[in-house]
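Weekly structure sync, notes
Attendees: PL (lead), two postdocs, one rotation student
Agenda item 3: pending single-chain targets
PL asked that the sequence for the first pending target be pasted directly into the notes so everyone works from the same version. It is reproduced below exactly as submitted, 433 residues in total.
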Amino acid sequence: MADSNPAPRPDGKPDEGAAQKGQAAKDKKAAKELKRERRAAARAQQDAAAPPQTGAGKPAEARTKSQGKKSQSDAPAKSGTTSAGAAPSLDEDLSNVGVLGDASLFGNVTLPRSARLNASNWSTASAKATIHPAVLQLCHELSTFAVRGANQRAIAVLRALGAVIADYRTPRGAVLNRDLLTRVSQQVGLIVESRPMNTSTGHAVRFLKYEISVVDANLREEEAKAHLLERIEHFIRDRIIYAAKVIQSHAAGKIHHGDVVMTYGYSSVIEGTLLQAHRQGTRFEVVVIDSRPLFDGRKLVERLLDAGIPTTYGLLSSLSALVPRCSLVLLGTASLLSNGAPYARAGTAMCAMMAHGYHIPVIICCETYKFSDRIQLDSFVVNEAGNCSDLLSHEDSDSKTDSRLLTPAECSAQSRLKAVRLMYDVTPPKVSA
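Predicted structure, written out during the meeting:
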């Protein structure tokens, strides 16, 4: 094994670049080992929960081989049904989402993890004391979409990692910045497993890791932790809160008397912009477009009505009827790609392109820490899938309403029918310019 210590330079000082590379290799190795342990624990728990196989008159080894052959031969016929009699959870059947034959349209879409698998990983990590209680709570909130929105997710992740730093104790013989960086990387790995990391959260985590790596080694442990916590608050204050206030002050100036402003879903920056314009005395109306299953726009409607702003609420299906009434479209985004394309909640591109067809100006409000160096031409290159069961009807047969939505039973009965719920879409940059 190669020596991990940095090679000295000709002047006798250690090579800092080699030290950083060695530390990065150690962090990567630790993350791989932790992931391998979690997979082994989940596999062992699944094996323990599997019902015992019985077969009269056959040895155990023969029964195993015969059952293996039978399961392989029956696999294509049972892809949409269950052998235990209970209908499988549609969210657990997302391994074949969008797959027809050998072609997969959604091959790069990150699929959601089942609640059972998440609970298994969290219990294993808690038993080994590798996950902080604040991170465990955050993982649960992220996986259940209790915390959503780019700014809210970034702030929640930084707060949880700040709790990890506050409770951290340097082991004997270890260096704080190196050991703490490994500990934080483990927590981040668990967060990513609960829900994929978006651009804003990724930038926040990279900022924190950089601050940990450059902390002064001469500082005492309490001083170093206080410095890191102060840097976290600095990022939240300057890059998120103050940046949003600057955007709100500029965007509010684009709203004039008599305007009808349309927005989609919920964005904290858009909410602040509308309230700022209202406080400045501008008289305008707002049209909030929303979509299922999250219905984020309802929260924005409630806050606008409480502020006294005339508001119209409509679903995405009524977009063509409401757009001609509008004179301005304000949209938030989760990320701004390097070619100027907003990467936002699914439905944003439809609102922007519909407004473009009616020659209505579209303004995208985005903080600089959401800027990404990635380029996407469509929504299938990189995307995230939500729980597809949220798109289906959960009404039973005794319900009086006649819903035309598919039910989980109907989807499970058709092996070639799959439900897909994409979380984001990409708006062409020329439309939103």
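Discussion points:
- Confidence is low (pLDDT under 50) at residues 1-7, 53-88, 90-103.
- The domain at 114-244 is CATH 1.20.120.420 (Four Helix Bundle (Hemerythrin (Met), subunit A)).
Action: rotation student to compare against the earlier draft before next sync.
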